[in-house]
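Final report, closing paragraph on structural work. Over the funding period we assembled a curated collection of sequence-structure pairs, and we close with a single example.
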Amino acid sequence: MEYLKFGLLLLMVRVNTLYGLWDLSVLKNTYVVDISESGEGENVIFECPVVEETKVYWLIKGNQRPGRILRTHVMEDIDAGNFTCHRLTGELIDYKVVLLNTLSHLNQRLLPGKQPIQCEAQNYSGHFKCTWKRIKKHVQYIFEAQRGNYTITCEKPSENNRKYEVNCHDNESCQYGEESHNINILLHILDEKRYENHSLTFMLRDITKPDPPAELKISSTSLTWSYPKTWCNVHSFFPLIFNVNITKGNKSPEHHQGIDVPEMPRPPNGKFSFCVQARDMYYNSSWSEWSCSKHNKPRNKQAKKQKKKKKA
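Its predicted structure, as stored:
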């Protein structure tokens, strides 16, 4: 069923197919011609919205073509662009924008790679962020997200550190309920006369990656840390598990995996550092980045100082 629904999402983009064109519904009067590897192109037809007796002309590639109906062959960049219909006085009546979608090898695409979009969520609140690499300046991005039969609210894509990112919030999401429908996203890319789109399907639990654990502390007997502040507040309902690495000097780290409480015994005397990462306990999603703390003072010296303070 999910594949069927995602197919319907793609059909939203491909409605009103006429003469080899398909209607890019997210932009008014904009159409796309798919160019296959054979590069044959498509014959397309546009009609100016006037009665038959009206004398009009189409302006295409700087040339006037008289008549209400425009027939042209679209095969390469020079054939695409803006087509405008005018009265003999020059008054603009209508316009069409034609873009090319080159269905060729991945390395010839505007946004290369099999899956150039990455999405992450810090928790199960319904907020998530998607990113992709910046291609070049003056490229237009349109981002859509949908779950089931409703649209997810997303901000406009913005550039940040040579990447584009978009923040979305699924207002219908219930963090205490089991997900039953995939989130389907669709990224439209427009670069002058070229067009392409990229899609991705996921559940929130698939892309959830907690922030690193916080408040790492070292006491005389234990190592402790806390859940990240951005994680779900009810820890008993959304527990995390932890991996801990303890490193002494130049030795290889000691690995402690699958710890289910934010605490463990402190190692014996000596200088050491420890790092902690977290993951959802019940779902095999992504581990957080590491959070680290360094301890420079041997425990026996600390104990002596504490004894001196007590005597004083």
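Residues 35 and 102 are 5 Å apart (CA to CA). The first strand starts at residue 21 and ends at 23. We thank the funder for supporting this effort.
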